Every structure is written in C-alpha cells, then in structure tokens.
Amino acid sequence: MTKRAAALLVLLIVSAACKRLSAEDAANARARAIWAKHEAVVEQALHGTFHETEYSEAGRFFRELTGIELHGNGTPFGWMPVRETAADFERIRAWYRANGDRLYADEHDQVRLRPAR
Predict the structure, then answer these.
(1) Contacts of 56 (CB under 8 A, 6+ apart)
(2) What pTM did the predictor assign?
(3) At CB < 8 A and 24+ separation, what contacts does 27-35 make?
(4) How distant, in Å, are the alpha carbons of 7, 22, 24, 63, 70 from that of 11?
(5) How many domains is the chain built from?
(6) Is residue 103 in a domain?
(7) b/e string for 76-113 if b means 16 or more Cβ within 10 A?
(8) Is residue 95 part of a domain?
(9) What does the alpha-carbon distance between residue 25 and residue 19 come to, in Å, rounded to a whole number?
C-alpha cells in the first residue's frame, strides 16, 4: 500500500468516526430535549398548572424509562399531584443525574437507555 493510499484510508476512517459521533450527539440532544419537555410538564403540575393528557404522557415516559411511578390522586377533574408526587419527581431527577449521559433517541424519537460501559 502506498503512502497516499494509506493516508486516504486513514482519512476515510476518521471521517466515518466523526459522522458516527455527530449522529450520536444528535441522538443525545434529541433525548435531552424530550426529557426536558416531560420534566417541564411535571414541574408545572407540581405548581398547579397542568394538562391531563400531557401529564399522563410524561408520567408514562418516566415510568417506562426509569421505572419510577409518579404518585397522584384521580379526581373527577383528572389526575392531581399529591405530597408524594414531589418526592417521586426528585427520585426521577436523581435517576437522570446518574443516567442522563446514557440516554439517546432512536429513529422514532423514543428515548432509550444505553447499556452501562
């Protein structure tokens, strides 16, 4: 292999690695944005403002991803946060601090957890 061919091969490998990192960065950013959207919904609910559909989606998102249930009280007006909801939300935030760097969004914008390295 000539020096020129070897240099071209190295360039192609580096280029492919950069594209992969770029795609991973984009997937990580999408995951962070999706998490932040659901986090804001719960934060607003804890301060008295929420839309039941959005809140239900956020609760399902956190339960499926973290395994942590947001406790609440069903009423004729919909779901309402209770005292335990704030403690559950703190557990979710602690989970994110420990695992947030492993989150990514797949091609369907479903947030997934990468295996620990």
Answers:
(1) 79
(2) 0.75
(3) 27/104, 27/105, 27/106, 28/103, 28/104, 28/105, 30/104, 30/105, 30/109, 31/103, 31/104, 31/105, 31/111, 31/112, 32/100, 32/103, 34/61, 34/105, 34/109, 34/111, 35/96, 35/100, 35/103, 35/111
(4) 6, 16, 20, 44, 50
(5) 1
(6) yes
(7) eeebebeeebeebbebbeeebeeeeeebbbeeeeebee
(8) yes
(9) 10
Local structure of 77: helix, strand or coil: coil
Query: Residue 36: inside a domain, yes or no?
Result: yes
The domain of 88 spans 21-113
What pLDDT, in 10s, does the model give residues 62-113?
999 999 998 877 655 556 778 889 999 999 999 999 999 999 988 898 999 9
Q: Residue 8 falls within a domain, yes or no? A: no
DSSP three-state, residue 114: coil
